[in-house]
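Bit of a strange request maybe. I'm writing a small parser for structure token strings and I need a real example to test against, not something I typed by hand. Could someone generate the tokens for this chain?
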Amino acid sequence: MNQLLVVAFDHFDDARTAMTRLRSLEREGKIRFEDTAIVERDPDGTAHVKNEISGTTETAAVIGALVGGLVTFVFPPAGIAIGAALGAAVGRVLDTGVSDEFVDEVKKTLRPGRSALFLVVKESDADATLAALRPFQGDVIQTTLPSEIEEALRQALD
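Reply from user aminoacidic:
Good idea to test on real output. This should exercise your parser:
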């Protein structure tokens, strides 16, 4: 089952740096993401959201491309449109990522000069993930992690 983790960091660049560390763990096979997003609020109060490609988006794109290619072969003019429409429909059906409304809610409450990281995790090595986040200070905004792992994360971010 996917786990949601949202952390607000004390410094503007910390969410981006933490995501770089977590992507390194992903390359090592120690964590797998369904979806990720970063929110940064400039010192002047301007907020920026960076949604990364999710597993759902990738799946929908592959299905759309395959069907579009097949339909293009059989019915050339309609294939591209049908493939794109099918990819979008699959994406909506499979959407299990970070809710845009929730990202907007956090974006509005994030203090200037801070950043937040949204993760929907498929699976992870908890010890490696905690070690990657330990150098940062911040607050857990929301999580669906088991209580003992959530507490260890809170302590790591203190």
